[in-house]
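Sharing a chain and its predicted structure for anyone who wants a worked example. Both blocks are below, sequence first, tokens second.
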Amino acid sequence: MTASEPGAPAGGTSATGASATGASAAGAATTGGLSAKGLSAGTIGLIGAIVIGISCIAPAYTFTAAVGPTASVVGAQIPAIVLVGFIPMLLVAFGYRELNNRMPDAGTSFTWASRAFGPWVGWMAGWGLVVATILVLSNLAGVAVDFLFLLISQISGNPDIADLASNTVINIAVCLLFMLAATWISYRDMQTTQKLQYFLVGFQVLVLVFFAVAAIVEAVNGQGFDYRPFDIGWFNPFAVTSFSAFAAGLSLSIFIFWGWDVTLTMNEETKDPEKTPGRAATLTVITIVSLYLLLAVAMIMFAGVGTGRLGLGNEDIQENVFFHLSGPILGPLAFLVSLAVLTSSASSLQSTFVGPARTLLSMGHYGALPPAFAKVSPRFFTPGYATIVSAIVASAFYAVMRVVSENTLWDTILTLGMMICFYYGITAFACVWYFRHQWFDSVRDVFFTFLFPLVGGVILAILFFTTLLDSMDPAYGSGAEVGGVGIVFVLGVLIIVIGIVLMIWQSIKRPAFFKGETLGMDAPASTRRLKEAAR
């Protein structure tokens, strides 16, 4: 079996990474099929992939930033929205797993959409993934800076230290140091990343579970701010008052799950690349939803969803709910929560580099971007050039946005929700179309290659267009506007338009990819017919 055949491993461990990549690229150009890129194969196991997946999601950071706005929109139905947001993620994860089983390739959404729909759609799917991750990289670095000074302030007992994060020069300088450290670790081999993430993710999850249990105990003992006894009705999504509120809450819910697909971008470096990444993605999503539900229930029981001093609906605490609740719940151990969020953002900053770097590597490898992006470090077998480019772009974006407007940075993160729906949705539909000849080969195929990814893709498409329309209102976000149109809408459309312009430019400069010569479309025959032919 060759690397270009469906189901063949797409990894490579040759010490001559660059030359191996060149030879593989030549093979791909001849066949229009998949080929190895010189990454270090067989270095990541199932547990390691799950840990990196959880790290990329950054549960401590994402939940403290999302739980308040979600409460403002849907009230006590936070657990219901978490569960509903989990459904399209799980359905799409099944589609990702099927695509990975057939085509384990580091390009994931880019590669799979190209094979299913052709180079133009594939390029835009890759663009959506890269832009989403670079946007969140800059934000993660900024959050790490804020929590670093908050932590020092809590430990030292000097509240003035926390204000240093508001100094633009200091903020940008420390942010760039975080980015530099994360880039250095990501540039090195995946073993270094795994070892670091085992510690950071383990600590983060333990603190979050400790916080949740302590909140429930305090609430039940009458020490809660606005105690609410547990109510199974919190899990009822039909109790949400309007579809707009439901859609807004669901968009936030999808944001807190985003990042699990990093387990698929490492597929050329995992043990058993056809099975391990898909299993890791599914287990990562299930682990995260369990943790979020525990936290949501605990926080509602302790603080309620009102607009009081510690209520989850209070806009003054919504940027960092954990920080405001940690003191009343944990007392002198409150600093552990700040340390957990700092750990969460810092570890995610490092692990998030994995996704865009490997997507850019694949785009360069198959000729969709300049060949420099296809370079693999001959020492560490990592996409060194793509990693460095991702870091430079994210750092520059953060520095510029921090100087121009801090609110603009937060608006770009709201835009992230649209980009997630954009490229996840394309990938889900790619699964449905790619396996169209085997939908009804078995009951399993009906669900996993057709029904599940189709429903997941439709949900994400509806959310994408609903968010796009709602974001035209300046009230959606910071209130900033351009010509009466909300800045979130402007940013979302601008990102897509820039992607289209760059794609057209690359099609002129690098026509081979866009003619399907380096990565051709593929419509595999029915599994049943393949088995019959084998007999």
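Comments welcome. The two ends are 18 Å apart (CA to CA).
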